[in-house]
Amino acid sequence: MSTQENKTHLILTGDRPTGPLHLGHYVGSLSNRVKFQHQYKQFIMLADAQALTDNMDDPGKVHRNVVEVALDYLAVGIDPKLSTIFIQSQIPELTELTFYYLNLVTVARLERNPTIKEEIRLRNFERDIPAGFLTYPVSQAADISAFKATLVPVGEDQIPMIEQTNEIVRRFNRLANQEILVECQALVPEIGRLPGIDGKAKMSKSLGNVINLGATESEIRAAVKKTYTDPLHLRIEDPGHLEGNVAFTYLDAFDQDKESLAEMKAHYVRGGLGDGTVKKRLEECLQELIRPIRERRAALAQDRGYIIQILKEGTEKAREVAARTTSEVKTALGLKHF
Amino acid sequence: MSTQENKTHLILTGDRPTGPLHLGHYVGSLSNRVKFQHQYKQFIMLADAQALTDNMDDPGKVHRNVVEVALDYLAVGIDPKLSTIFIQSQIPELTELTFYYLNLVTVARLERNPTIKEEIRLRNFERDIPAGFLTYPVSQAADISAFKATLVPVGEDQIPMIEQTNEIVRRFNRLANQEILVECQALVPEIGRLPGIDGKAKMSKSLGNVINLGATESEIRAAVKKTYTDPLHLRIEDPGHLEGNVAFTYLDAFDQDKESLAEMKAHYVRGGLGDGTVKKRLEECLQELIRPIRERRAALAQDRGYIIQILKEGTEKAREVAARTTSEVKTALGLKHF
């Protein structure tokens, strides 16, 4: 605990528990969290309440995946002694803050949010946007500010959400005439998004182009076999292209032996190296990366009670922090009567 | 308690605590509540959280008026043993329900709500509607359904809010595949809205045409003097008009001696009865009505601790009910993990 207290920055991060986590999550966020937990105070939120904004038709899916995602966290090395893992829906204070912050942002402002605009387009919502979806940046502002987070890891495309949060923070502080809430900064990861095995820009469960962190040996083998390479590289002796070649993008991310990888790339480009050889190396790397994760995951999954206990303790700790902020906010809004 | 339990209908009603209550409230709702508390279970909400949706610039006003409005309630005869008086903001479960219900209603549906449309017009919000204002019918649905209220006293113009609530109730129950929430009925009072002393359709603090329930003798006298009558009734011997004549509207509402009133009306219409005489009678009626209210109010105001105690007990009782419903809702949404 004493080391926790010495850390100046506080990170809020998390996932919507809508399915098992995959290599895209590993590269984009999980591996960073494993590092960050030593440098910063870190709160990791299982955003089940937020997940319902577009999964109201299947709440069972969200429910089941809370424990599944927690297993993924622990399996990759997130340490509950260093990171506070908690369940969003178990902290009613987050909905209280959302409720009051809704008065600090106009409908027009929410409709202008580029992230929301894009997500509305992706989901074909058009005029039938659920109100909970339009207002979810306000809910994010509640989550971030409840913990007085100073750093929020997000992709480039999520920066408008951070701006929206800081607008609400500033508006509230001005209203309260006190610096109660804290502005945050986006922490954009150096390594960008991992493409799907099919070459699509994003690895995503709904696109069916993922390799899960709990994948079996044969699932990994099958996925590597399907991994997109260079469609113009028909014969071994032909020169191959690296650009858009997912096998090499993955090797860049996961092959620790950078020297051999550089040689392999040169060989591939000048011709004479078959996709089979490249994929063999990729499979080695992925089997090596995922095996210990899968094994830890399987071992942890034996003791569901332990996972629940970790979530319970993390949620209690997180709730204390959120309750303190909410109490300050409500006091400033004249909502304390006894 | 046993009588409470035998009552089949449950009423949810309340006020936004933004100022002292006046005769308009008395006629339109308070006097009914004094009756209803014997017939129905009755929960009366001091809607401080909702009041902030358009008073975010002056939360102190809302805070102060919570106790003031509670004083008005007790002074008119609302009995905390028969009615549960509670403070909205002290029941976080109401914001939780609001949060989840936001997923059950589209932005387009909220924008079509005629009550909201009209209130947006009145407040000159136009494109700059605070999100909390657009979504407040969802918050109302949360309040009503949290208590499984079956009757909600509202004016004619608020009926769309009840429809919105029932839409959410039906949608949720369909989703949960269980009858967890309960539909409610609007209870439109027989006696309509009391006009302002200036003849405007509505008695309203912001229009400055009210007589408060705590008005002093001289305030009542002054208000009666200013009360709008028949502008064409210049000389005593002229025939007078009753239509739009606020003095007579008030006499209709407050003069218990219906026979004398009928005679007075006939006399006024055929000519020979001066406004002074009419107003003298009106003042008698109002002084008689308000004196005991004012006196009880002043006595109660001496013991703020007692008022706070009543609000605390009412809020605890209300919270138990709301928490039970919220627990059912969250269970159905897969949001119970421990």
Automatic annotation (TrEMBL), chains A, B:
BP-aspect Gene Ontology terms: tryptophanyl-tRNA aminoacylation
CDD domains tied to this protein: TrpRS_core
InterPro entries in the record: aa-tRNA-synth_I_CS (IPR001412), aa-tRNA-synth_Ic (IPR002305), Rossmann-like_a/b/a_fold (IPR014729), Trp-tRNA-ligase (IPR002306), Trp-tRNA_synthetase (IPR050203)
Catalytic activity: tRNA(Trp) + L-tryptophan + ATP = L-tryptophyl-tRNA(Trp) + AMP + diphosphate + H(+)
GO MF terms held by the record: ATP binding; tryptophan-tRNA ligase activity
Keyword tRNA-binding: no
Gene3D superfamilies membership: HUPs, Tyrosyl-Transfer RNA Synthetase
GO annotation, cellular component aspect: cytosol
PROSITE patterns from the UniProt entry: AA_TRNA_LIGASE_I
Residue runs in coiled coils: none
Pfam families: tRNA-synt_1b (PF00579)
The keyword Ribosomal protein is annotated on this UniProt entry: no
Keywords linked to the UniProt accession: Aminoacyl-tRNA synthetase, ATP-binding, Ligase, Nucleotide-binding, Protein biosynthesis
E.C. no: 6.1.1.2
Similarity section: Belongs to the class-I aminoacyl-tRNA synthetase family.
The protein's name: Tryptophan--tRNA ligase
Species: Sapientia aquatica
